[in-house]
């Protein structure tokens, strides 16, 4: 009987412990439910470009994220990944240095495009793809070949050539996926350095730098201009060596592509490509807001300066959250930002001072 009583007591203790544990869990669940968000935003009656506007908050949510309503920072686009395009342009600036007489008037660089390149970083993949040339030397561009490449001129005794593409219309590809490339093919170069001007000779093939390159896309409907100018991260350029012994002197950075064959190419032809990633002009990054606060601070207001006059919709995402629950509200305020130097701005300023 003693043994039975002892077991019964143990059983009761286990049941009580389990009950208390469950009760604790239930109490914890109830305590982890967040309160509904109580949050509102107000703005001044008069707002001027170039001057801070104060957004005043009523309520203290755990988190606030802000969208100013300016281009690239609009809540309406926070889930947008594709757009229609009305027009697409490409610009760049090319410098070709150290050009030996044998290379005068000869195109060293070629602008190419492909829709069927696989993206594989091999010479075989380059050769298997269908490429269309889009370039001609400066002064010889056409509708079919609208992109200029340098044209060093022996007559002017100038071993450096330049080419600038300014907003070249590339709208024919605005609804296509494609690879944009620069091809550098050069024949034998059995020369040594010497001389100057038009008579200069260089041991290496010419060096080419491509800078100031961007793609501008005009969104259908809104007219918003989206600029892509990071050659490394947005264009995704990489170097593919079809025939090249030296590889260290071809570089890709965020703002420059550099192609510089070295002296070991004097006895063999060169073919090096710089090819973008597959580009889809309709693809865009969603707009991202700015986090204003977390749970560790209280925030009663926020200031932001609109650089240009216009009508804007600012959006605030207010959230209360724990690991187990969350509550969120979206507050939008639409207002006009005026130019204080305009007649209307001066009138409003005068009225405000009289009050």
What is the radius of gyration?
Answer: 32 Å
Low-confidence runs of at least 5 consecutive residues: 1-28, 345-355
Helix content: 10-25%
Report on the biggest sheet: 6 strands, antiparallel
First-last Cα distance: 94 Å
Tally of contiguous helical segments = 3
In N-to-C order, the SSE pattern is HEEEEEHEEEEEEEEEEEEEEEH
Write down the overall mean pLDDT. 84
Beta percentage is 35-45%
Strand count: 20
Mass-distribution shape: elongated
Question: Which class of secondary structure composition applies to the elements?
Answer: mainly beta
Q: How many domains, in number, for the residues?
A: 2
Task: Draw up the topology in text.
Elements: H1 2-31, E1 40-42, E2 52-58, E3 63-67, E4 85-97, E5 110-114, H2 123-128, E6 132-133, E7 135-137, E8 147-149, E9 161-169, E10 179-186, E11 207-219, E12 225-228, E13 238-243, E14 250-252, E15 256-259, E16 270-275, E17 290-293, E18 301-305, E19 310-321, E20 326-337, H3 343-354
Parallel strand pairs: 7-8
Antiparallel strand pairs: 1-2, 2-18, 3-17, 3-19, 4-9, 4-11, 5-6, 5-10, 10-16, 11-12, 11-15, 13-16, 14-15, 19-20
């Amino acid at each position: 009987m003693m043994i039975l009583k002892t077991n019964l007591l143990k059983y009761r203790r286990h049941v009580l412990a389990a009950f208390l544990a469950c009760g604790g869990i239930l109490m914890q669940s109830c305590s982890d439910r967040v309160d509904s968000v109580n949050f509102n935003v107000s703005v001044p009656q008069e707002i001027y470009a170039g001057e801070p506007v104060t957004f005043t908050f009523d309520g203290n949510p755990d988190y606030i994220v802000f969208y100013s309503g300016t281009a690239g920072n609009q809540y309406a686009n926070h889930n947008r990944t594709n757009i229609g395009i009305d027009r697409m342009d490409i610009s760049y600036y090319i410098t070709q240095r150290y050009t030996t007489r044998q290379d005068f008037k000869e195109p060293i660089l070629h602008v190419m495009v492909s829709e069927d390149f696989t993206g594989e970083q091999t010479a075989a993949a380059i050769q298997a793809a269908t490429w269309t040339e889009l370039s001609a030397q400066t002064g010889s561009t056409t509708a079919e070949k609208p992109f200029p490449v340098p044209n060093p001129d022996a007559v002017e005794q100038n071993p450096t050539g330049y080419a600038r593409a300014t907003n070249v219309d590339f709208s024919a590809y605005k609804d296509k996926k494609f690879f944009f490339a620069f091809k550098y093919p050069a024949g034998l170069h059995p020369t040594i350095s010497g001389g100057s001007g038009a008579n200069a000779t260089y041991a290496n093939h010419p060096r080419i730098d491509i800078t100031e390159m961007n793609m501008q896309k005009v969104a259908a409907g809104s007219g918003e201009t989206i600029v892509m100018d990071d050659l490394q991260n947005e264009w995704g350029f990489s170097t593919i060596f079809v025939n090249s012994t030296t590889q260290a002197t071809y570089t890709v950075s965020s703002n420059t592509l550099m192609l510089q064959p070295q002296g070991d190419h004097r006895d063999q032809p060169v073919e090096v490509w710089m090819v973008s990633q597959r580009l889809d002009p309709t693809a865009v990054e969603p707009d991202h807001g700015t986090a204003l606060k977390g749970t560790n601070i209280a925030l009663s207001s926020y200031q932001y300066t609109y650089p240009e006059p216009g009508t804007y919709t600012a959006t605030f995402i207010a959230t209360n959250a724990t690991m187990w629950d969350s509550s969120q509200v979206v507050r939008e305020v639409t207002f006009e930002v005026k130019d204080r130097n305009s007649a209307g701005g001066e009138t409003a300023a005068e009225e405000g001072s009289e009050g």
